[in-house]
Amino acid sequence: MSQSSLEQNHKDAKKKNRKKVFKLWISYQKERKWLEDMALEGWFLENMSLGVVYTFVQGEPRHVLYDIDRFSLPKKPTLEEIRHKEIFLEMAQELGWQEVTHDESMTYYFAKEYEEGGINELHNDPESRRYRAEKFRLFVWEYGKKLTFWSAVIALFGIFAKLVQTALHEFFLGWYDWFALFYVVFCCFMAVGYWRLGVRCQRELSMTRQEWEESVDPKTHKKEKKLIFTVRKLKRFLQKQAKEGWILTGVTPTKYFFEKQDIANQIYTMDSRWLVNKRRSVLHEKKIADGKDLIGLNNDWQLQSVRDAQEKGWTFVCALENRSIIYRGNPESVQPLNDERYDRKLRWISLIGEYGFIILISGLVGGIVGFCKNFFGG
User: What is the side-by-side strand order in the sheet with 64-70?
Assistant: First the structure.
C-alpha cells in the first residue's frame, strides 16, 4: 500500500473517531449534564467553537464530570485579574480537573473523572460559586448593554433625520424609518432576553450540582403559569396546591414556583404597604411613608409586616419586589393578618408594579385628552 493511501486511511480513521454536534444551550447546567451524558456514551468534548459547535472524540465510555468558568480580561486589568486564571488553573489541577478547551468568549471547559466519595465540584464553596455566577451574569448583560446602546444610536439618528427631513430624499427616509423601527424593536427584545438569561445564569451557577438537579426534578419541583387578579383567588389557588402537597417557594407576576413537601395543610395570606398602614391606622399609629422613596426601595413597611405576621403565627414565603409579601401557616395556629374584605381587592400594583401602573395611568390620561381634543376641537 502506498504512503498516500496510508495517510488517507489514517485521516479516515481520525474522522470516524470524531464528530461535530451543533447545539445551542441557554442553561449552563443543562449543557454540563449533556456533556456528561455524551461521555457515558463514549464521546468526550475536545473543542468548542462559536458557542454552538461541539467537537467530540470517541473513547471508552466512562463517568466524566464537566464544569465551566470564565477568564476574560477587562480593558484595564489589575494584577489580580491578570493572575486570576493562572492561580485558578493551578487550584483546579490540584483537585483533579483538567482544562479541555475554551470558546471565543473565553468560557473555559474543565473535565474530571468522577470519584465516589470525592470532591466532584470544581467550585465547591458558596463564595467561589457566587464569584463564578457573577462573572457569567456580567458577561451576558454586556451583550444586552451593547444592543441597548446601538438601538439608542439608531433611534437618535432617526430623530435627527426627521429634523432635517427637507434636506433628505423622501425614499431614504421611508426606508430608514422602517429599518429603525424593526431594529429598535429587535434590540429591545434581545436586550430583555439577555437580561433574563443573565439572571438565570447567576441563579443556576450559584447552586451546587445536587441543588440544581433537585430544583429541576419534576417530582419535587414545579412551575405554574397563571394570571390571578384578586387576593382571594390567589389564596384559593395556593391552598388548593397545598392540599396536593405543593408548597409555594417563589412568585413572579404570572409564575408560581412550588416544592413538594410533607407539610400539613397550609393556608396563605398576602400583605402590602397599604395593608400595613391600614393596620397601623386602626391602632392610631403613624403610617409608614417616605417622601424620598419614589420607586419603592425603602423596606420599613416590610420589616413591620414581617413582625406583624410572626406575631400571628405566619411564616414568610416570598416577596414580590417591594410591592407585596406572601405568608403561609397552619390554619389551626395562625390568626388573621388582615380583614377578609380586603381579599376582594385587585392586585394591580402587585402584578404590574409602580412603573407599569404609572405608564398605564399616563396612557389612559393621554388617550382621554387626545380624544377630547379631537372630539371637541372639531
Answer: 64-70, 107-113, 98-102
| Residue 9 pLDDT grade (very low, low, confident, very high; cuts 50, 70, 90) | very low
191 CA to centre of own chain? 13
pTM to 2 decimals?
A: 0.67
Q: Which amino acid is at 38?
A: M
- Alpha helix stretches (DSSP H) within 95-169: 126-163
CA distance 87 to 136: 19
Which residues are within 8 A (CB) of 43 and not within 5 positions of it... i.e. 6 or more apart?
A: 19, 56, 57, 58, 59
Distance CA 62, CA 36 (A): 9
- 63: cell is 463517568
Identify the bridge partners of residue 271 per DSSP, sorted by sequence position: 325
Q: pLDDT digit string (tens) for 89-116?
A: 999 999 899 999 999 888 999 999 998 8
Cell of 210: 445536587
Q: Which of 231, 223, 323 is nearest to 269 (CA)?
A: 231
**Strand, helix or coil at 179?**
helix
Helix intervals (H) in 25-77: 28-40
* Residue 38 near residue 45, CB atoms below 8 Å: yes
Residues 6+ away with beta carbon under 8 Å from 163: none
* 154-192 core/surface letters (b: 16 or more CB in 10 A; e: else): beeebeebeeeeeeeeeeeeeebeeebeebbeebeebbe
Length of the chain: 378
CA 144 – CA 78 distance, rounded (Å): 25
H or E element, residue 223: strand 221-225
- CA separation, residue 307 to residues 100, 311, 325, 362 (Å): 52, 6, 12, 36
Contacts of 270 (CB under 8 A, 6+ apart): 231, 234, 235, 324, 325, 326, 327, 347, 350
